[in-house]
Amino acid sequence: MFTKMKNIDSAFKYVRSFTMIVIAGCVVICCFALYKSFQTVARMQDKVYILAAGKALEAYASDRKDNIPVEARDHVKTFHKFFFTLDPDDKVIKTNVTKALYLADESAKRIYDDLRENGFYSGVISGNISQTVQIDSINIDIKDYPYRFKCFARQNIIRTTSILKRSLITEGSLRNVSRSDNNPHGFLIERFNTIENKDLGVENRK
Questions:
Q1: How far apart are CA 72 and CA 64, in angstroms?
Q2: Buried b / exposed e across 83-98, counting CB within 10 Å, b at 16+?
Q3: Which of 47, 52, 167, 193 is the most buried (most CB within 10 A)?
Q4: What is the pLDDT of residues 163-175, one digit of tens each?
């Protein structure tokens, strides 16, 4: 009888040990499955699909810190394009300057107000002058915040009989702000200043 009880006790211990191992295995498998699921969801959130011409194109999201130099340079470039591109049309000038002023603070607004008060834009319109800007390079220092920048560009001032070529060097700093339709990069140019804006030469138009 004692032998029988020993066998039953041994069998019970064996069943209990086996059950514990099975439960532990199930817990490990469930935890692993949850971990892989969260990992997959996180990986999928980094993917963006864009529909273009009936085709789904895959794009990848990334942290902003990885894109600061690229976005900062494009922000500065966009501001200069809008602020310094002029045509002899009051509506065009106002539209471009308005877009530019969304990207900068009062330092740029002050320059615009001074030019307007001095009759610069009226002279552009009355003289049928167009002005274009070509960006040569933009240096961004992201070691310190706000990020300092220096922009090197060239201007073409197109008159009826000639094209005046000028060099343009500007500087300023970039502060982080909320992104919007008017400011998609989420930067604001501060302490904007023109370092150099001198004539390089005149080309006669044919």
A1: 11
A2: bbbbbbeeeebeebbe
A3: 167
A4: 999 999 999 999 9
